[in-house]
Each structure stands twice: as structure tokens, then as C-alpha cells.
Amino acid sequence: MQDTTAALRQRVRDVLRKHPGSQRAFAERIGLDPTKLSKSLSGARRFTPVELTRIAELTNVTVNWLINGDDEFETVAAAPQRTARPEREPADFREAGRYQQILDAAWKLIAERGYHSVRVADVAKACGTSAATIHYYFPGRNDLLTETLRYSVRLAFDRQVAELHTIDGAHERLLRLVELQLPTPGLLRSEWSIWLQVWNESALNPDLQVLHSDSYTRWHETIARTIRQGQRQGVFAETDAEELTVTLTALIDGLGIQVLTGRPGRSVERMRRVLREFVEREIVRH
Phi/psi class of residue 19: alpha, beta or left (left: φ > 0; alpha: ψ in -120 to 50)? Predict the structure, then answer.
């Protein structure tokens, strides 16, 4: 499997050498025991998908690059649009660390409180810095929402690559994609909160509509290519893959909104069951 190769371990070593601080401190930042990090670097254990995603996030690379050595490598998930870039690119690891700290704080606050309830001063307080520093990286408050969307897209792409790259069967991969899209408590529910707010704001903001469309296209294409692969493998029905993707993504969106808004009788467990039943009934070949 690719995540056990010497090439991946070497790429992790390379980004660790460039990252400020000790290997022990880095291990703590990704929530990993330093001994386990050493074992992963030596090949005695494999990096988990969560660890690979966190390493990529902290070192400003992609999981696709860590695993395959190339951001443009044709992998299991469609890549985000390359046109989506922050206005001020961090110049070095120190500046990138500050930028990521601000983005993390803004992302969490917006997910928890709502975009219109978060002020720049709140983000500055959470980071222990000044409002002027926040404005250096994010000139306007709207920029915070825009970048949190891009951040969510990047997180989803990295997570999908990390989780799916060892799964060859399209059926299992599609079910795993469904699982990764459930608004379970924690990170995924926060991502759903961001998406709900982006949907609301993009209905009124043409600029955000473009970014949202690009971002959603990435998710749509990931599902579509998985369905097409299953059809080539002979495990999925020869139904129009595009139409199946439109229906499945719409079903995920609608159920996710109902779960997040607390509609009675709607739960993550029921959402999982309905989506799995749809896959088995409409997509799997019988």
C-alpha cells in the first residue's frame, strides 16, 4: 500500500526538517505520541489517514503530494480548483503558521457561532494577537468566510485522499465517501455548519457563488468518478453516472440539512441508513 512506501516516509521527513521546532513538538501538534511518529518514519507502523491529513495541514502541503509526490496526480478524489488562492500567500513557515492559526480560529468560531456573530476582534482574541494582524491576512470580514470555505474544501479533499487511496473497490469506496459526508459530532459537523452558511451567503453574493460552484464541482466529480469506476468494475448498474451523482448529492445535502437543523426523526444514523439503501437499490448492479 502506498502509505507504507519509503517515498512517503521520506516526504514526511523532508517537510519535518523544514518545519520549525522539534520532532517531538510536531508530533504533539498532530496529536501523535512521539514514539509512534518515529515508528511511522522508520516503517514500523503506518500513518493513519487522520495523521496524514494533519501533517499536510501543518506543513502546507497536500495529502496527494505526501502519498503520490505530485499535487496534480490523478487520484481517488477530484482536486480543488487551483484558482482558489488566499490574497496574501504566507512567505515562510513562520508566517504560514500564523496564517493557519488565524484560519483555524476563524473556522471554528464561524462553525460554532455563525458568520454574522463573529467579529474580527473575536478571531484576534482567540489567536492572542491584534485585529491589525488579522486584517493583514484577511483585509475584510468577508475574506474570512471565503477562506474558511476554501479551507473546508482542502480538508475534505485531503481527508478523502487519505481515507480512500488504499480502497480499490468502487462499492466500498462509495460507501466510505458517504460515511465521510455524515454530519457526525466534531469536525464533520463543523464543516457542515460552514457549508450551510456559505449556501446562505452565496445566494446573495455573486462572487461567493463562483467559489461555491467551483468547490461543489469538486465533490460532484469525486462521486461521479467513483460511480464510473464501479461501472467499469461491473459492480454498479449501467445507469447514467451523471444523473446518479446529481440524485445522490442532492439526497446527501437534503438529509444533512435536516439533521443539522434538528428536524424531528432525522439523525445521523437514519441519514446513513437512507443513503446506504439508495446506493444498494439504485447504484449497485443486481
Answer: beta
Using only C-alpha atoms, the chain has a radius of gyration, in whole angstroms, of 20
Amino acid at 200: N
Among 80, 72, 259, CA closest to 156: 80
The number of beta carbons lying within 10 Å of the beta carbon of residue 192 is: 21
Same structural domain for residues 96 and 144? Answer: yes
CB 149 within 8 A of CB 107: no
Nearest Cα residue to 285 out of 164, 177, 171:
171
CA dist 163 and 237 (Å) reads 25
CATH code for position 134? 1.10.10.60
pTM: 0.80
The C-alpha cell at 43 is 516503517
For residue 11, what is its C-alpha cell?
Answer: 516526504
Per 3-state DSSP, the chain is made up of helix, strand and coil in percentages (nearest 5) of 70, 0, 30
Which of these, 110, 30, 84, lies nearest to 216 by C-alpha position?
84
Residue 100: give the domain boundaries.
89-148
Cell of 28: 504533539
> Torsion over CA of 269, 274, 275 and 279, rounded to 10 degrees?
140
- Predicted confidence pLDDT, tens digits, the chain (286 residues): 444 578 899 999 999 888 878 888 888 888 889 999 999 999 899 888 888 888 988 888 888 889 888 877 777 676 666 444 455 555 555 666 788 889 889 999 999 999 889 999 999 999 999 999 999 988 888 888 788 878 887 888 888 888 888 888 999 999 999 999 999 999 899 989 988 888 888 888 887 888 888 888 888 999 999 999 999 999 999 999 999 999 999 999 999 999 999 999 999 999 999 999 999 999 999 8
Q: Domain for residue 267, yes or no?
A: no
